[in-house]
Amino acid sequence: MRKLLLTAALIASLGVIGNATANTELNANTKKVEQQALSETEELAELSKKLNNPLADLWMLWTQHDVTSLEDKAGNSYISHSTKFQPVMSFDFSDDYNFILRPVFQFQSIEVPGMERENGLGDTAVLAAIGPKTPKNGWTIGAGVSAFLPTAEETYLSTNGADQFAIGPSLIAIKLGEKYTYGAVVQHFEGVGQSEAVNSKGEEEDLSLTDIQYIWRVRMSSKLQIGMAPNITIDWNKSGSDKYTVPVGLGFDYMTRFGDTPVRLAVEGYRYVMQADEFGPEWGIRFVVIPVVKNPLL
């Protein structure tokens, strides 16, 4: 009887020890999973901040689709689509500066008064800029050169119908804060060589265009931001208010992960408060997908 009681007590003790060991292993695994999740969240939060900096040391496969509603003087509406693929590549320029190269390839589907819809490749834009690796007092300021390459398949698919090579300076100034990000990317293009565009007098008209992307974002969480980054354009060949195209709007972006690839997803809506009277945009919607990829040179 005594041996039986001792055996039962031993079995019970082993069961208690086994449960304690299992609980310890379970707690350790739970903490490990929580730490991994926290690490991934922190990594995505850091990437989300860096994506606000056009001069960051990142490689991105930026893909953007814009749907724009335009209106003529008679009040007729037209819908245009533009899909842009912008691989953003960062290179070490020196110990303190990055060199950024961003070609923009675009497929256009444009509907205009008195013409059938035209579809095809548009002009290719290129931005090359140099800026600091580390912001100073929260500001990152860079400068470089921008160009249009006349790769449009049809004249009307080219920038302002010029079908012309264009080049000019670019300036980047962004304030990067923990909660707020604001600033602008300014590019100017001057046509060089023969232009297909003509003015009201029937004279050849060289491209003269300024693009200002103004940026304002508010961080709502480690992965979510609200704000906007629309593009103001100034056509210096036009007069008065017709030369300005000015959108305002609001949207959000969210940082997530598809497999091992960090991705930013964004949607923004715009209303145009200034545009050409004869024919100009009324509203637009922008969809953006930005996978962040490893630098293949490292």
Give a description of the structure:
The protein is α+β, with helices and mostly antiparallel strands. The protein has a single domain, classed as Porin, CATH 2.40.160.40. It is built from one helix and 14 strands, in the order αββββββββββββββ. The protein has one helix spanning 2-50; strands at residues 59-72, 77-92, 97-110, 118-121, 124-132, 139-149, 165-176, 180-192, 208-219, 224-228, 231-235, 244-258, 261-274, 279-293. Strands 1, 2, 3, 4, 5, 6, 7, 8, 9, 10, 11, 12, 13 and 14 form a 14-stranded antiparallel beta sheet that branches. Strand 5 and strand 6 form a beta hairpin. The chain is globular, with a radius of gyration of 27 Å. The relative contact order is 0.13.
Series of secondary-structure elements, N-terminal to C-terminal: HEEEEEEEEEEEEEE
Helix residue percentage: 10-25%
Number of domains: 1
Just give the CATH class. Mainly Beta
Q: What is the terminal separation in angstroms? A: 74 Å
CATH architecture label = Beta Barrel
What's the overall geometry? globular
- Note the total helix count: 1
Q: Could you tell me the CATH topology label.
A: Porin
